[in-house]
Amino acid sequence: MDTPNQILMCSPKYYGIEYEINPWMNTERQADHQLAIRQWQSLKQIFEELGVQILELEPVAGLPDLVFTANAAMIHKQTAVVSSFRHVQRQGEEEHNEQWLLRHGFQLKYPPDDQYFEGAGDALFCGDTLFAGYRMRSDAAGLQDIGRMFGCRVIPLELVDTSYYHLDTCFCPLKAGQTIFYPAAFDSYGRKVLRELVDDLIEVDSEEARHFSCNAVVLGETVVTNEGCPKMCRQLKRRGYRVVETPLSEFVKAGGSAKCLTLRLDGEDAASWSAETEG
Ligand code: ARG
Question: Is 166 an active-site residue?
Answer without folding.
Answer: yes
